[in-house]
Fold:
Amino acid sequence: MREDDIKKNIDKCSRCALCLQNCPIYQIKKDENNTARGLICKLSGYEKKILSEKEIKKDLKICLNCSKCKENCPSKVDTTMVFAYKNAKFSPSKISQRLFLLVKLLPVKIMYFLNIFKKKYKNNLIKTNILYFKGCVAKAQHKTTYLDKIFSNADFLCCGVPYLIAGDIKNYEKAKKRNIDLIKKASKVVFDCASCKRAVSEYEELDEAQKKKLVFFSDFLTGKKIQLKESSKYKNKTVIFHKPCHMDKNDYKKIEIFLSNIEGINYKKQENSNLCCGFGGSYFLYHPFIALKIVLKKATIIKKTKADLILTACPSCTMGLRFGQIASFNFRKTLEIRDFIDSELTI
Ligand code: SF4
Ligand code: SF4
Structure:
């Protein structure tokens, strides 16, 4: 995002405060400095040379980058991109940025090397130019998902958001460029991670026609006969779905239809399904007390549902929800929806 686009977005804010009520950080801290309106006001002060970088940096770092403010903004301020780019600009030094990123990506890298000898799935029958955007965690686990068997598994790079949040704009731009080149050649790009899809949809270089190519896997399941495997341990069990903050509302509706159509499980729509899991990638490492409060809030609601299985569609949410189960002594299984499909369903 260029500086003039950032400025345009800052100027678009009408200070209406509609972004406050759903901000998970505001719900915990009750401090307007940490809301989208507060941050936009401060950045406006910075543009006008009233405030210094130091007076904004700390508050920018507390933002979870969950996008709830952006979703609720009537003026269509691109809050998350403004905050991410400004945060990247204000980040102190290259060495600290790299260290931040190293810590963040370390579990994924370790997982990659632990799984490196797993056999890779090769589908020689693929003749489609519908491409599967496999996220970093699924790649690191060398997982063969059902989407590998249907669509071409192109060599997309990371969506780039971990780099951007860590202040590494150079690598963010590099990942973005590679992914855009592949999107342009595809007829559709299928995602099974809500956060990857959101990150790619936010590439400003993509026009509306290119963005329409980006779809969630649930689009391909509509009208299909879906059954629970005979051997499934979730027969007649209660299943809920946690909506990742970055999940598009329409994708969520389709996931709900998909889950309600599965014969043999008791799918229960969750109250407050929109509530953040609190994990936000590596957010937990840097703001453990805030994250823990959000995680526990979510875990308490989940506990009341008495669900046997919690599903979601983002590896970061999966970690957050699992942590919440442990912290609230509610030892229920949490799975990524793609793993649930692979192990429990026949489609
Ligand atoms: S909802 Fe949008 S326009 Fe309203 S205060 Fe928040 S950022 Fe500004
Ligand atoms: S991105 Fe999320 S945490 Fe950050 S200001 Fe917006 S609603 Fe709050």
DSSP finds 18 helices and nine strands in the chain. Residues 138 and 151 are 15 Å apart (CA to CA). The two ends are 42 Å apart (CA to CA).
